[in-house]
Design brief:
The strands form eleven sheets. A four-stranded mixed sheet has the order 14-9-8-17. A four-stranded antiparallel sheet has the order 10-11-13-12, covered by helices on one side. A four-stranded antiparallel sheet has the order 20-18-19-23, with no helix packed on it. The N terminus is likely disordered. By secondary structure, it is an alpha+beta fold. Helix content is 32%, strand content 22%. Helix 7 runs antiparallel to helix 17 and helix 12 packs antiparallel against helix 16. Among the domains are: 170 residues, Alpha-Beta Complex (Topoisomerase II, domain 5); 79 residues, Gyrase A, domain 2, CATH 3.30.1360; 90 residues, no CATH class; 154 residues, DNA gyrase/topoisomerase IV, subunit A, C-terminal (Neuraminidase, 6 Propeller). The relative contact order is 0.07. The chain is built from 20 helices and 36 strands. It is elongated and about 160 Å long.
């Protein structure tokens, strides 16, 4: 057995080294020949082969459509020996106007939709041809501009790269995942990129800031708003990496939101599914309905109807909430990673990309000019030979008639080359005329001029730059269009808090004497007519809205808060308040309050002290509540006063019938505490229960005070009330010896 093998024919290698080399070779192949685009034409190999195969089949933008299966057959049979489905998907992507900013392929049939890009028909049903934009990539391919390499089996040649007239790498962008690296290049606008290229050609050392005055940023095929700040976009283009935020475009009509444009690669169906799921989970109570009204004329039209009882909530706030929980706002990663002219992958900044592409384009132009120059030289060479023939026409005819091998004689006598002789011998007799000779001389003059012009251009970098700019401007004029993605400075997406997500429908809260609490819809319910448990009856009620918070004040000066949504319906007999709150033992419920958070409230006590706080100060964060007003021994809390106008006055009346009027601004603003003296109450009289603050009111110029005693009724107007204004020491004023006041109430004149 050993005799069959010569010494040293088997190489031994460690397994880890072999695996490492094999993996590296595979990764290099994937990076360079599959996943990353080339900076020159912006295409991956499969895309390049599809475009080239279609051009070879004659499927130009002006030709008839052919079955896509015919194209894919040529691609995988001649250039790309991989799966037909994967190859067809690459072809479909280049035909979708919602995937590519400038589609390379035009299609007939079902090529997918924005709502479902993968819904395209099989290749046997669809037809395709190249788009006009593909001319940018193919126009000069037959002019010696690019190198051709053998295909996978060596039977055919394919272009190593396409001679792109514009930087398709940045115009259509690209996405791909290789081994250990990826690329995410967004699309841009032709007009902006073309102007930037010309600026860089004129000023090679231009700064990125100056370029970004021309290029606003990416321009996605589906439009939408770019809400990323300008300084962030600068960082992205400087580093070649970052992320950019896109937001749907919307407008308000009546009480509905109409979405007319979605972020890139986001479907309307997905948005509707996300919102309807939230609606089913009762997390979007403000939305009444959502429907898709998209059609041929309006590719994107999603209508969201807002409920009327959420009119208090600005639609802008609702949209900011939707942006934070759905794909109506989407962040896109940007990674400007590509194969450079050195055939190595790298992340490049914007200036590097455009400058390197300009260098690539100059190479293409020089190759094209040299190719044309060779053709002109060849034509001139042939014409010079033909003119020699015309000058010695009779001799040429005689040599051809009398000699079997006229070629050798032509060479010796007239010093003609093989090419000139072959052209001469293939010359038709009818071309031998004076007119033809003149045509040849005119043609020679034109070719001489072209020859000189090309030589001048090739010998001058300035002229090459001028030619490059002219070509860019011409192509840009033919293919440029308006920007689709607009830049807007918008507020950040923000979730609504729980209270804002609750309907603002009117409600009435009812509390019974035994502490059972419930909530009824509307403000028309009569709490006295409700059914109560045996031995129980009505105590307090308050009207408000479902999305508000209710505060409870007890006899000890503690405040508690309850989420109204958690209260049981009025159809039941309610729920024990003690099951929701830890009401301090021995205390009784004195008041219920429902107001806006910043509403000012006057809290006062029978000891004659009080202060103004905000409703938000009374809201407690736990079941135990919090001490809001400090009460001394045997002190009672009075009914809170809701301050509606700071110009109103405060009227206090003591048990001994002393009246005192003063300004609201004399009362301190506190979040909690005892407050300051509102009216003087003698300490000994207070202890003996002879005197205390009994009544407190808010009054204005239209107020009338009705005072009832045991025997008669008094009516005081504002002029008479003014006599009680701010007496020194706040002792108050005895008026007309009114004694034994039974009740006081305020009415405003109409």
């Amino acid at each position: 057995m050993n005799k069959l093998f010569k010494k040293n024919t088997i190489e031994s290698i460690q397994l880890d080294k072999f695996a490492e080399n094999a993996y590296l070779n595979y990764s290099i192949y994937v990076i360079s020949d599959r996943a990353l685009p080339h900076i020159g034409d912006g295409l991956k190999p499969v895309q390049r082969r599809i475009i080239y195969a279609m051009s070879e089949l004659g499927l130009k933008s002006s030709s008839k459509y052919k079955k896509s299966a015919r194209t894919i057959g040529d691609v995988i049979g001649k250039y790309h020996p991989h799966g037909d489905i994967a190859c067809y998907e690459a072809m479909v992507l280049m035909a979708q106007n919602f995937s590519y900013r400038y589609p390379l392929i035009e299609g007939q049939g079902n090529w997918g939709a924005q709502d479902d890009p993968k819904s395209f028909a099989a290749m046997r049903y669809t037809e395709s041809r190249l788009s006009k934009y593909s001319n940018i990539l193919l126009n000069e391919i037959e002019q010696g501009t690019v190198d051709f390499i053998p295909n996978f089996d060596g039977t055919l040649l394919e272009p190593k790269i396409l001679p792109a007239c514009l930087p398709n790498i940045i115009l259509n962008g690209s996405t791909g995942i290789a081994v250990g690296m990826a690329t995410d290049i967004p699309p841009h606008n032709i007009g902006e990129i073309s102007n930037a290229l010309i600026k860089i050609i004129d000023y090679p050392n231009i700064k990125l800031n100056d370029i970004l005055n021309i290029i606003q940023g990416p321009d996605f095929p589906t439009g939408s708003e770019i809400i990323t700040a300008k300084d962030e976009i600068y960082k992205i283009y400087k580093k070649g990496k970052g992320s950019i935020k896109l937001r749907a475009i919307w407008e308000i009509k009546d009480n509905s939101v109409i979405i007319t444009s979605l972020p890139y690669q986001i479907s309307g169906i997905r948005i509707i599914e996300q919102i309807t799921t939230q609606m089913r989970n009762k997390k979007l109570p403000m939305i009444e309905d959502i429907r898709d009204e998209s059609d041929y004329e309006n590719p994107t039209r999603i209508v969201i109807t807002i409920r009327n009882n959420f009119s208090y909530l600005k639609i802008e706030k609702i949209m900011l909430h939707l942006f934070s929980i759905t794909d109506l706002e989407k962040s896109y990663r940007i990674n400007l990673n590509m194969i450079g002219l050195n055939n190595k992958p790298s992340v490049k900044n914007l200036i590097e990309i455009l400058s390197e592409w300009i260098f690539f384009r100059k190479i293409i132009i020089k190759k094209r000019l040299n190719f044309n120059l060779k053709k002109i030289v060849q034509k001139l060479h042939i014409i010079e030979g033909l003119l020699i023939v015309y000058s010695n026409l009779e001799k040429f005819i005689q040599i051809i008639r009398l000699n079997l091998d006229p070629k050798s004689i032509f060479k010796k006598k007239f010093h003609l080359t093989n090419l000139q002789i072959e052209t001469l011998l293939n010359f038709k007799l009818r071309s031998i005329s004076l007119i033809e000779e003149n045509n040849l001389r005119n043609q020679k003059k034109k070719l001489d001029i072209e020859h000189k012009n090309i030589i001048k251009i090739l010998s001058s970098e300035k002229k090459i730059n001028t030619l490059l700019k002219q070509e860019i401007l011409l192509i840009s004029k033919n293919y440029s269009d308006q920007r689709r993605s607009i830049f807007k400075k918008r507020k950040e997406a923000k979730l609504l808090n729980e209270s804002e997500l609750i309907s603002s429908e009117p409600i009435t809260i009812i509390l019974s004497k035994m502490g059972w609490i419930r909530c009824a819809k509307g403000h028309t319910i009569d709490p006295l007519n409700l059914h109560y448990k045996s031995g129980d009856s009505f105590l307090l009620s308050i009207k408000g809205k479902k999305n508000q918070t209710m505060v409870i004040l007890d006899s000890t000066g503690r405040s508690y808060s309850i989420d109204i949504v958690s209260l049981p319906a009025a159809r039941s007999q309610g729920e024990l308040l003690n099951a929701k709150l830890n009401i301090s033992e021995g205390s009784t419920i004195k008041n219920l309050l429902i107001e806006s958070n910043n509403k000012e409230i006057l809290l006062s006590a029978s000891s004659g002290y009080g202060f103004i706080c905000k409703f938000n100060d009374l809201i407690a964060c736990n079941r135990n509540g919090k001490l809001s007003i400090i009460l001394s021994k045997n002190t009672e809390i009075l009914s809170p006063l809701i301050i509606k106008d700071n110009n109103d006055k405060i009227l206090t009346v003591s048990l001994l019938n002393r009246f005192l009027l003063f300004s609201i601004n004399e009362i301190p603003r506190l979040s909690r505490g005892k407050g300051s003296r509102l009216i003087f109450i003698n300490k000994q009289d207070f202890i003996k229960n002879k005197d205390k603050l009994k009544w407190i009111f808010l009054i204005n110029k239209n107020s009338l005070i009705y005072i009832k005693t045991n025997t008669e009724q008094f009516i005081l107007n504002y002029k008479e009330i003014k006599k009680f204004y701010s007496l020194k020491g706040k002792k108050g004023f005895f008026y007309k010896n009114i004694k034994n006041i039974k009740d006081i109430f305020i009415k405003n004149k109409i």
